Amino acid sequence: MRTYKKYIILFAGVGLMALQSCKKTIDIQPIENNTSGQFYSNEIEVRQAANGIYARLGRNGTNTDFATDYFFLASENRSDLVYLGGETNAQNDQLDLRKYLLTSNSGIVSSIFARLYQMIKEANNLLYFTKEGEYMRYRAEAKFLRAYAYSELARSFGPTALITQPIENRDAILLPRAPLPEIYALIVEDLNYAAANLQKVYTGADAGRVGSVAAKALLGQVYMTMAGYPLNDATAYAKAETTFSGIITDVTARFGPVYADLFTLANENKYDLFSIQFVSGASNLGSSLPGYITSSASSGSPYPEWVFNSYTTQGQDIRVDTLLIKEMKLSKDLRFKASIDTGFYNAVLTSSNANTRTFVLKNIITKFLEKDNTNSKIKAWNDFPRNFPIIRDADVYLLYAEALIQNGKANQAKEYVDKIRIRAGIGALAATPTMADIKRERKFEFIGEGRRYFDLVRWGEAEAISTLSAFATHYHSKTNGQLPTKRDLLLPIPQSELNTRNNWQQNFNY
After folding, report:
1. I need a surface site. Which of 78, 254, 307, 335 has the fewest CB within 10 A?
2. What pLDDT does 36 receive?
């Protein structure tokens, strides 16, 4: 059972969203005039505060979770893996993201930015109101989550304000946008601290909480990001190699031998190193991601044979690239069937409609859809139980292999690329792996997981723009969209942030 599947609200000066165990509810009544300093007085309260930081990645009191807004709509939706099969007049932010028409007034962008800074604020509170030497596990988790939030801010927004302790709003708006090297220095420091003060992996009642292996895996990913565009710090490849080599044995112990088994409820927290936790039951704890995989009216049910009768979807008609489909089918790649469906029936099979129901052809990502119309726990389009992986086995294997190739050790990289390929059913490479092999495997391995856009960016400005432009020209040149330019390699700073400051400049060309 997952340990922080259900959320409760705890008021302690500021609101902290906490999580509770599947087995037991921690119920602490609000205390009038309680301050932050008074709140962090015992382990139960500090644990709740740590849980509250995790909770920001979930629904966070909104209709959508971080994985939906960030990894799917703002990342996968802008990549060369998916396109719009048709447009609706709803959810215009999704259209603007896909068609490179984004502005600083986007609600999704503002939500992403605010959510990440909420994590930073609450991590800073925990670290400030506890002392070094006590509650070290929860301090380490706070450091990890602060580092994670800053890592996503850095690669999506570029330089942002660097805040490491509680601060008044009047002082916060005076802070400049810190240079990326300063932000990454804090991220590296925080992740090393987390790695030194956490167990390797947490299981049982604590399954789903970050451990030192996850901290080092994220550190390796950060180094790989630093090595690419825009920093282009070539020394970071060696740091990434060293970091990954130190955990590769531990990651191998958690390597899932069957790709399809990585995305089942039965195996959650078994293979992932760090994932967003979800559970169904109409308690605002479910994932909203499956609700965006295809189009439907708000009262419709586009694939009822898979899910409960009142299921509805949100947003645009997002489909998978047909050329990618053909390539995966041709190679008989096992990742295809586990990640993508080519259509669905428009009605649940009954004796009366056996000859009348039709099959709707649409290539859609269903990796995180629970195809079980008997699951009575799923209550709404944003109430799905599947966790969303932020770091898993293949992240480490393929990033480690990439670092080895960049460091002139391609022969050592073959072992890790081959493990991914063999699991996918396409066999080992016949020769030493190249960067082209890495790029191909990452493209197919992480369909629907929001990795592709960030990969293209870190592989270089020219490659990212040319790849995305070719894709946009093919699919969206006649739908009033724009071709991507350098500006689209970052998200805009939300206008609401700029309105409160006079010392920040908007990102390039927004």
Report:
1. 254
2. 62
Phi then psi for residue 50, to 5 deg, are -65, -45
Q: Which segments of the chain have a pLDDT < 70? A: 1-37, 294-304, 307-313, 478-479
In this structure, what token pair is assigned to residue 487? Answer: 């500006």
Q: What is the pLDDT of residue 379?
A: 84
In a 3-state reduction of DSSP, which class is residue 430?
Answer: coil
Element holding 3 (H helix, E strand):
none
Query: What is the residue whose two structure tokens read 């799905």?
Result: 384
Residue 177, number of CB atoms within 10 A of its CB: 18
> Given 1.25.40.10, 1.10.3720.10, 1.10.10.10, 3.40.50.11540, which CATH number is that of 203-277+390-448?
1.25.40.10
Q: Which amino acid is it at 299? A: S
Count CB-CB contacts under 10 A for residue 345: 16
Q: What pLDDT score does 479 carry?
A: 67
Query: Model pTM?
Result: 0.91
Architecture of 106-198 per CATH?
Answer: Alpha Horseshoe (1.25)
Over residues 37-47, the pLDDT tens digits come to 678 999 999 99
How confident is the model at residue 87, as a pLDDT? Answer: 81
H/E stretch holding 82: strand 82-86
Q: What is the dihedral of CA 399, 404, 405, 406, to 10 degrees?
A: 90
Q: Do residues 464 and 470 make contact, with C-beta atoms less than 8 angstroms apart?
A: no
Residues across the chain: 510
